[in-house]
Amino acid sequence: xxxxxxxxxxxxxxxxxxxxxxxxxxxxxxxxxxxxxxxxxxxxxxxxxxxxxxxxxxxxxxxxxxxxxxxxxxxxxxxxxxxxxxxxxxxxxxxxxxxxxxxxxxxxxxxxxxxxxxxxxxxxxxxxxxxxxxxxxxxxxxxxxxxxxxxxxxxxxxxxxxxxxxxxxxxxxxxxxxxxxxxxxxxxxxxxxxxxxxxxxxxxxxxxxxxxxxxxxxxxxxxxxxxxxxxxxxxxxxxxxxxxxxxxxxxxxxxxxxxxxxxxxxxxxxxxxxxxxxxxxxxxxxxxxxxxxxxxxxxxxxxxxxxxxxxxxxxxxxxxxxxxxxxxxxxxxxxxxxxxxxxxxxxxxxxxxxxxxxxxxxxxxxxxxxxxxxxxxxxx
Length: 380
Ligand SMILES: Nc1ncnc2c1ncn2[C@@H]1O[C@H](COP(=O)(O)OP(=O)(O)OP(=O)(O)O)[C@@H](O)[C@H]1O
Ligand SMILES: [Mg+2]
Hints:
By secondary structure, the protein is α+β, with helices and mostly antiparallel strands. It folds into 2 domains: 2-115, 2-Layer Sandwich (Beta-Lactamase); 164-379, Histidine kinase-like ATPase, C-terminal domain (Heat Shock Protein 90, 2-Layer Sandwich). The protein contains 11 helices and 13 strands. The protein has helices at 2-8, 27-33, 37-40, 45-48, 56-65, 112-190, 196-225, 237-250, 274-292, 324-327, 347-357, and strands at 12-17, 22-25, 49-51, 70-78, 84-95, 101-110, 233-236, 258-262, 269-272, 297-304, 310-317, 362-367, 371-379. The strands form 3 sheets. The protein has a 6-stranded antiparallel sheet, with helices on both faces. It has a 5-stranded mixed sheet with strand order 8-10-11-13-12. A hairpin with a 3-residue loop joins strand 12 and strand 13. Helix 6 runs antiparallel to helix 7 (196-225) and helix 9 (274-292) runs antiparallel to helix 11 (347-357).
């Protein structure tokens, strides 16, 4: 009966007598080791079962004589071909009714599969750890790239701002150079005529102002590289408007448009850079003339605000007016409705930039087909 039970077990089972010789083995043991049952019978158990440390035999004997059950994980079954098969061994004593040790039943379980599973698990864990590290490294590299992209964006924005500023300066230089050319034309036409001296007297101050403009714009271009404050001084706004009117008229910028100056009797002083204010007026009046086309009136009015704390300038025209859906775009850099050779779309953004730099505000009221009013104020 006991033999049948032993045979039915899948693990390798051997029964050993008190001398340590194998008396019984099942087919689990023969399959695992390659020895036949006959070969196994009588074999010293120490030939079949070994362990790395103290020698299984002594341990088996001592423990089992004490009536202990032996469990040992790291043992090996030595197969017929000499291969060591890792097994986990359980040993139980077989006692006579009088309490003497008759033998030991050893059950050895093949742990290769379990070990393989363990090894696989460990490999998987280390694979995961490696993947995690790679992920972490990738994240760090993406963060670095993001940081670089952010810096590049900042740089690009700065360049775009510089471009806009430089474009604005170029725009003003072109405006003013046209006035200079017109002045030179006038002198050339007057050469040899009776009114030469008179014309020269008229034109020289304009040319001087043009020179002043060019100097200031050169200064601004230099400031792009190394910003510094604008030079400011108290000036009478009435006087500036009068001078700009004369300059535009002389340059032929007004064409057939009538320019009306509604100036105050008292000087209206503001502390600003004169060239910058002239720039505002040239831009606004030029836009007004463009909007009129042929016949119409541009009025420039200078007055103090109701509370007397600010100076107010209004440029009104009887031109085309601005469509409501266009109105909120006109201050954007490069927004223009004019042909490419006529407009760059930098006039108004420059105007607003100057007004705001002095703590002023600019607003526009327009009616399509009726005309437009630009109004700005400056602190007195
Ligand atoms: N007084 C005005 N009446 C009608 N439309 C105007 C007036 N002023 C400006 N605009 C509109 O606003 C747009 C933008 O004006 P802005 O002065 O900025 O550029 P621009 O005159 O087109 O070109 P630039 O001044 O660079 O030569 C103009 O193209 C025009 O459509
Ligand atoms: Mg313009």
